Amino acid sequence: MEYILKPFLFSSDLLEEAVEVVIDSGEIPWPQDVTLCVPPLSTQVTLHEQAECLATQAFLRMHGLRFTLDERPNAEFMSLTSKLPLLKVDDHFVAGFDAIVAYARLRIRKQLTDEQESAIRPYVEMVQVTVKNAELYAAWFDDTNFKEVTSPRYGSPYTFPLNKILPLLKRVQIKTYLGQNSPLASLDDVRESLQCDLKALSERLGPRPYFLDDVNTNELDALVFGHLTAILTSKLPNGNLVEQIHRHQNLVTFCQRVDRMFFAKEVGLNNDLYNTTVVTGVRRLPQMIIKSDA
Amino acid sequence: MAQFFNATQQPLPEEGVVAQTLDLDVLSGVRTIVDKVNLEGVGRTKDVVLKRECQRIFQSENFEELVHNVDYTIKEFQRMGLFKAVGALIDVGKDANNYEVSFFVKEPSRLFGSIQTTVSGSGDTGLNVAVETPNVFGAGQKFRIEQGFGTKTKSHFTLSYGHPIQLSPLKYVNTSIFRRNFLLDASGLFNVDHGVGLDVQTELGPLTRHRVGWEGSWRYLNSLNPRTPYEVRQYAGHTLKSAVVNEIVHDTRDHAMLPEEGVLARFSNELAGLGGDVKHVKSEANFQVNLPIWRSIVAQASLGCGYIFPLGLGPVSIGDRYFLGGLNLRGFAQNHVGPHAGAFALGGSAYWNSGLHVYAPLPFGDPHQPLLRHIRLHTFFNMGNVASDAKDLPGLFHTFPASVGCGIVLALGKLARLEINFARVLRAKETEVQTGNFAFGFGVTYS
């Protein structure tokens, strides 16, 4: 199958491509005309894309950087490197969470100190590598999840037969990427690796409202919010990932807090964050319903 | 035998002169009975096919009809691609009124290959390799595989099967599978198409062709350039197009690229949206009139117009829109007339363009000599405009770009034109991209 599809592979967001973005340094005001282009978040976007889109939005909102959200079914192909989301600033483009954060940082007054930077860096890396790989595996590699959720969502803007072909093509790319970059071999591995990451994050967060201090937020907060919210609101039938997060109640509360603080105006965006019923067939944790206190 | 082929292969003007001096009125009075038809040189061509083609010769009642039918049969043989060369001989039979017709034919070799190089207006050079199997199953069927490579990302692959139809108003059926990669330079996009096509060709008259075709293609558009603007990028991505095309061409010209006389009228309609997500109706008409003035000096006038009506909610895809510039509006860069976003062309959903030319042969040599027939000097006046959508239609004739100039035209066979022009832009809006005064042009369509 993969051999047949190889000639049709066009580009992949997982490959690093060098794209030159000219960034002027110094104190530059945030431009007026800024558009954040994302796939339709409620119908089309898949797990890892949703994580990055939410994280980017959270980051921009946290720093009061204004943007208009533009939902386009072909957002992936509008992007330079196929990375999502795509930020359009005047006449140039920045794509992907990392690049957007690097770009936006030049326009933020409050910079992180070196000490703070080195404190959050390992966690940022961890979320971007292992949590992302876990998401990719769960959403794309696992047959049930792929067939029931990921494929219909990813193929939703297209007509037959493209709605069947394109998810398969994307799956081939992601399988190749995971084969080279990740040791994950089963959903149990995914759960284990995710549990490990969540434990580290949960310990780092502790009882505080945000990761670094009580008031200020930074890219780690945005990233953790994006990825965890994506997982919490995903409806993957297989893997029980939601339950993994609910084991760390402070992380769930953290996601709800960020959502209320920065996304409050958009009612209904992350509803699932509040009324997710945890599906536990088994064990220690009692079944619970998390309620919004907003 | 070889001499015979040489003689029949060349459409010498002397032959025509002889044919005209024959008084056919006299010949129509001569009753004829055709005894037999000989075919020499037949190998793999099927007997059934040949018998059917020769039926009409036996039905000839007088000599005039016989000559016409033999001529028609030769043309049919050529149309069906049965033979590489055909010659005919009408001989007397046993009695005075009895005749025998002999065809001397040469079948094409089983495998035929060709290699050609191409040059395009944007400076892309390429190589085309084609392999075909003429008359493969004995009734003129043909497989053809074509692969083209370009120095830029341009390339194409086509596998097609052509099937001629005998004694029917339908003349030819062609099916193909293709992959095409090409650039939309002016818009900063590249395109990858995969698809299948089916064509049925008929004849409405001796010089009028009719084509009905269906094409289903999977198109992938993506940006070529980091600076490609947002307005163009919104068309990027995958689309599925399923379209029926209906085309009628009436062409009485003596040469497709450098005509000296004749008229061309072409109407084409496309309905996209029978499945797939590209939905529009596209209508286009082109006319060209050639008037010989004196000797080989020819005046030519042409007019083209087209309109796309979107059927869905979304705008018409950039891959289907109209662009002007280059050989159809000289003085402006290829595809660079019309709505723009920055330096990138967006194309439009309506256009018109017109051209007036006077062609003259080179001042030395015989203008009808094979080489010099393909070279002409010309002066031109071009005008045209592209409108982005229906709201913009009144602006089409309001301030339209126009240019005037002169140059030299080289016809590359009957397939393409190569031009070197000195052009001056008379009027332009601000959005177009102009070429310098001297411009080099290459193209299949022109006006």
UniProtKB/TrEMBL annotation, chain A:
<dbReference type="InterPro" id="IPR019564">
    <property type="entry name" value="Sam37/metaxin_N"/>
</dbReference>
<dbReference type="Pfam" id="PF10568">
    <property type="entry name" value="Tom37"/>
</dbReference>
<keyword id="KW-0813">Transport</keyword>
<dbReference type="Pfam" id="PF17171">
    <property type="entry name" value="GST_C_6"/>
</dbReference>
<dbReference type="GO" id="GO:0007005">
    <property type="term" value="P:mitochondrion organization"/>
</dbReference>
<dbReference type="InterPro" id="IPR050931">
    <property type="entry name" value="Mito_Protein_Transport_Metaxin"/>
</dbReference>
<keyword id="KW-0472">Membrane</keyword>
<feature type="domain" description="Mitochondrial outer membrane transport complex Sam37/metaxin N-terminal">
    <location>
        <begin position="53"/>
        <end position="171"/>
    </location>
</feature>
<dbReference type="GO" id="GO:0001401">
    <property type="term" value="C:SAM complex"/>
</dbReference>
<protein>
    <submittedName>
        <fullName>Metaxin-2</fullName>
    </submittedName>
</protein>
<keyword id="KW-0496">Mitochondrion</keyword>
<dbReference type="GO" id="GO:0015031">
    <property type="term" value="P:protein transport"/>
</dbReference>
<feature type="domain" description="Metaxin glutathione S-transferase">
    <location>
        <begin position="195"/>
        <end position="258"/>
    </location>
</feature>
<keyword id="KW-0653">Protein transport</keyword>
<dbReference type="InterPro" id="IPR033468">
    <property type="entry name" value="Metaxin_GST"/>
</dbReference>
<keyword id="KW-1000">Mitochondrion outer membrane</keyword>
Automatic annotation (TrEMBL), chain B:
<dbReference type="InterPro" id="IPR000184">
    <property type="entry name" value="Bac_surfAg_D15"/>
</dbReference>
<dbReference type="GO" id="GO:0033108">
    <property type="term" value="P:mitochondrial respiratory chain complex assembly"/>
</dbReference>
<comment type="similarity">
    <text>Belongs to the SAM50/omp85 family.</text>
</comment>
<dbReference type="Pfam" id="PF01103">
    <property type="entry name" value="Omp85"/>
</dbReference>
<dbReference type="InterPro" id="IPR039910">
    <property type="entry name" value="D15-like"/>
</dbReference>
<protein>
    <submittedName>
        <fullName>Sorting and assembly machinery component 50-like protein B</fullName>
    </submittedName>
</protein>
<dbReference type="GO" id="GO:0045040">
    <property type="term" value="P:protein insertion into mitochondrial outer membrane"/>
</dbReference>
<keyword id="KW-0472">Membrane</keyword>
<dbReference type="GO" id="GO:0005741">
    <property type="term" value="C:mitochondrial outer membrane"/>
</dbReference>
<feature type="domain" description="Bacterial surface antigen (D15)">
    <location>
        <begin position="135"/>
        <end position="445"/>
    </location>
</feature>
<keyword id="KW-1134">Transmembrane beta strand</keyword>
<keyword id="KW-0812">Transmembrane</keyword>
